[in-house]
Amino acid sequence: MTTLRPTLGERELALRTRARRVIPGGMYGHMAVEAFSTAHPQFMVSGDGCRVTDADGREYFDLMCGWGPVVLGHRHPGVAAAVADQLSRGDCLDGTSPLAVELAELLVDTVPSADWAMFCKNGTDATTTCVTIARAATGRRKVMVANGAYHGAVPWCSLRGAGVTDEDQAHLVHFEYNDLASAEAAAAAAEGDLAAIIVCPMRHDIRRDQELADPAFARGLRALADRTGAVLILDDVRCGYRLDLGGSWEPLGVRPDLAAWSKAIANGQALGAVTGIEALRDAARSVYVTGSFWYAAVPLAAGLATLTELRKGTALPDMARTGTRLREGLAAQALSHGFQIRQTGPVQMPVLYFAGDDDVRLGTAWAEAAVENGVYLHPWHNWFLSAAHTDDDIEEILTRTEAAFATVARM
Amino acid sequence: MTTLRPTLGERELALRTRARRVIPGGMYGHMAVEAFSTAHPQFMVSGDGCRVTDADGREYFDLMCGWGPVVLGHRHPGVAAAVADQLSRGDCLDGTSPLAVELAELLVDTVPSADWAMFCKNGTDATTTCVTIARAATGRRKVMVANGAYHGAVPWCSLRGAGVTDEDQAHLVHFEYNDLASAEAAAAAAEGDLAAIIVCPMRHDIRRDQELADPAFARGLRALADRTGAVLILDDVRCGYRLDLGGSWEPLGVRPDLAAWSKAIANGQALGAVTGIEALRDAARSVYVTGSFWYAAVPLAAGLATLTELRKGTALPDMARTGTRLREGLAAQALSHGFQIRQTGPVQMPVLYFAGDDDVRLGTAWAEAAVENGVYLHPWHNWFLSAAHTDDDIEEILTRTEAAFATVARM
């Protein structure tokens, strides 16, 4: 691996020029790199373990893990073998793969709040299905959502206004994360029409510190749902499989009625899932949700291999250990360079901000310097660790982030 | 291949028992087989060309092609090689695959109405994105939709009521397919607030004859969109890549402003796309749509291999020829057994109903007999041919449908 990348590569630049002609703005969604960096490559061609390679052949230690999905590392041998094996037989068939039953059984066995499971493709498919089931079950319409929380990128939950009508979000009622009084007020405002409370396991909104859920807040939402007859939906799309295999609020002793899963559940193959309690089985049966690729065998095979590997029990503790070392190392480096920083959220899903850097200008410069030194991370979206990050990888990453701190210290 | 299947297999039955415990209703969406048959297997394990195999090892000639996606046949060598090659390098990375640019370029080169492209996973992602772009472009809210038309399975376009609120569909304005006067009336009802007209290339609603678009109707919708400043969206999810590579209304000389694609565009890998005209590029850039798996390399590699193969020019004429032979053969068989049948829609996407069979009871019995004789087809959803169906396959399929007609003739 080379260590200094002063400019974007030639192939990257050529691809961006071509992309601007045939893709609006040159890219869309969270992969539109120009929205957050002048140094990050937009295009990548390969991955191996905890490393990714861009179009110019530059290799990076990967602290985004495909923005979450890659929990075991790129091209994990066990998952790759399951994928290759199923591909050799078939993928998108006229009927469901029996692997859907196997994976549903394994989820029910792994997730205490799950009596059943359904599969889909996107995280947004899963959150939308949860809300639809909750409305079908309760015959009510209102859905409580935390201010600024991301539950997908379709009109009913979009955080951006373009193309969204007032009616798309007419039944959303907002509360403040970790503020139970605001949640009580939101429930009161819903006046007997409250179908669901949808909530992430922690506050992981972009461009701000992450906040772990206050256990009293989580328990309070559970009690509020019980008291009002609303469905408690845990949006575990981003956190799922990194904090606790049984669901990210298991350590708090709070179990949702429905949970939305995606990202990491098939180590990068396109898969989402909804799990739910027995009392919501009939409602789940009553809604019509489907997609051409939802029953395909290969992502289900990947999902089964991923959960089987994770259930061996070493991956999550490994990520906690390496994440802790990364956090400690970054803290020491910042201190030694005279920077005050904030590292928030669980160590497996870190984010780093500089004190007083409200516009994230310094944070962006540091992230750009990290990329130029061969560590791919984000200035204002949480990062992700994987089980493929070894202790040695973390040390090497820290060597490079040290260089990034040195760069911004010279600015 | 065996020729008679009097009962569901043991593994099928065992899987259904297990599925009922861990999946609501034993299955969801269009794969919930008990909603349409007592004889169709719900579970499938492999596919090869135009054949699929169920959990009990029973092989079927495939006339559903994974409900559309498999346009070149299961495990098509060219697509399989592209998938294996990309898998050997990586799939879900931190940046977009350069293949997104290549595929966007190839779509722009292939589809006359496409000046740009964006990629997603589900057909519903594509239709939802089209509507969002249209609203962003026009600043208007109303969307004209044909009665009974399927544009996806999420609340804004759902055809079922469970879990759907009035507000989800508050801005839909309905018209009757192939009835231009009803479309004019719907546009008038939208009173200057018409953002879009979304329409399928033909009427392919379930449980009824398919109707090709009347060219005057298609041209009339185009003129109506132009006159009102609305965006004409062609939902080519189901028909795309089977009727005309340039878009299913190219033969009519009618070009949409936006088109939604999915199903067949990656021969079974999860991929959707939106294509659009230059005038909508900025609006497409302004909406925030994204998904964790939308930028993954493997489905894009499959999409590139699929379109490259189709552009060689033989697949579509082949499907037209084999579809014509299938239609002629089925017509002759029905006649010889004294049945009046209706075969409607393009020959590559056939459906068959018996005269006077309004509850599709006879049609279901015939479809079940077909399955028992080793041909997988549907009683009331259109079928799909693929380029893997040879003339000999069609003759063998007809031998088996002859047996199915004989079975229902004895009833």
UniProtKB/TrEMBL annotation, chains A, B:
PROSITE patterns, per the entry = AA_TRANSFER_CLASS_3
An example of a GO molecular function for this protein is: transaminase activity
Q: From what superkingdom does this record's organism come? A: Bacteria
Look up the record and name the cofactor or cofactors this protein needs. Answer: pyridoxal 5'-phosphate
UniProt keywords, alphabetically? Aminotransferase, Pyridoxal phosphate, Transferase
Family in the record: Belongs to the class-III pyridoxal-phosphate-dependent aminotransferase family.
Q: How is this protein named in the record?
A: Aminotransferase class III-fold pyridoxal phosphate-dependent enzyme
What taxonomic classification does the UniProt entry list for its organism? Answer: Bacteria, Bacillati, Actinomycetota, Actinomycetes, Streptosporangiales
